[in-house]
Amino acid sequence: MFRFTWVFLALLMLTGCFYGTVYKNSDRLALNQLEKYVALTDDQQAWFLKEFGQVQVIHQSRYLPTYQEWLSVLKNGWKDMDEQQLYELSMRVNAHWYELIESLEPASIKFLMSLDNSQKAQLIDSIKEKMQLRQNDVDRQARALTRFEDILGSLDKKQKDMIARHVDKTAFYQEIRALNNQNRLAAIESLLAQKQLGEADIIKLGRYVVNHPRYWPEHRIEKRERRIRDQIKFMLRLRETLSNNQQEELAHYFDELSDLLVVLKNTKL
């Protein structure tokens, strides 16, 4: 829910030396993205930039080395890693995501509670609009193919069919996720509509914002497990179809990401 987190992490996927500058100025870029959802006062903007800067310093020193470690594991072992090894790495990454989001919970709550009623309504309406656009999205297959082609180069018909079938299969998980996010947003909207939040309400708000699996019912945990396992099995099947050229493209992709992380780690903030 806290948009600047998503924007910040998305910036880490950019490549090239130019993005050292982007990374350095990502506080302003994130603020620009956030203001597509809600117009902020000067004081709120200044507070956001300060909080973001503090998060970025911690992220650069604490987490970028971890990303380099994970990438090194994939770069050196992707040809031979089995399902369980990929699953364990996936769960480490997943746990990191929630650790990062939880670390932002106090700032997230402070930000949400700093909004006046009109800002809260604008933020909620903007998120609802974006969620609706995602629900109405009919180009998931095309985008998935584009992402794989960006990494692997040209795909043959068999590979395209595999990807299309996988996207269709995961549509169910997307629908479940969308429903859960709608429920979360409704709960957040209800809490923010209250004139005053007690301690218990603030704890609830934090849980809805972070959405940590420790608070999920068992059936949601099981669905996440199946989704992750299905994703890994698909990637293993696709791995068996890669041509020599595609393997070289993938190795080059890992090299580019490695170079990017070095640039970001050495960027003077």
Structure characterization notes:
This protein has 269 residues and is mainly alpha-helical. The protein contains twelve helices and no strands. The chain starts with a helix and ends with a helix.
How is the topology of this model organized?
Elements: H1 3-11, H2 18-24, H3 26-34, H4 42-77, H5 83-103, H6 105-114, H7 117-135, H8 140-152, H9 157-192, H10 199-210, H11 218-239, H12 244-266
Helix pairs in contact: 1-3, 2-12, 4-12, 5-11, 6-10, 7-9, 8-9, 9-10, 9-11
Q: Could you write a compact summary of the structure shown?
A:
With 269 residues, the chain is mostly helical. It is built from twelve helices and no strands.
The total of helices stands at 12
Choose one word for the global shape. globular
Poorly predicted segments = 1-17
Number of strands: 0
Q: How much helix, percentage-wise, in residues?
A: over 70%
Mean pLDDT: 87
Oligomeric status: single chain
- SSE string, helices as H and strands as E: HHHHHHHHHHHH
Structural class: mainly alpha
**What fraction strand?**
under 5%
Question: What attributes does this structure have?
Answer:
mainly alpha
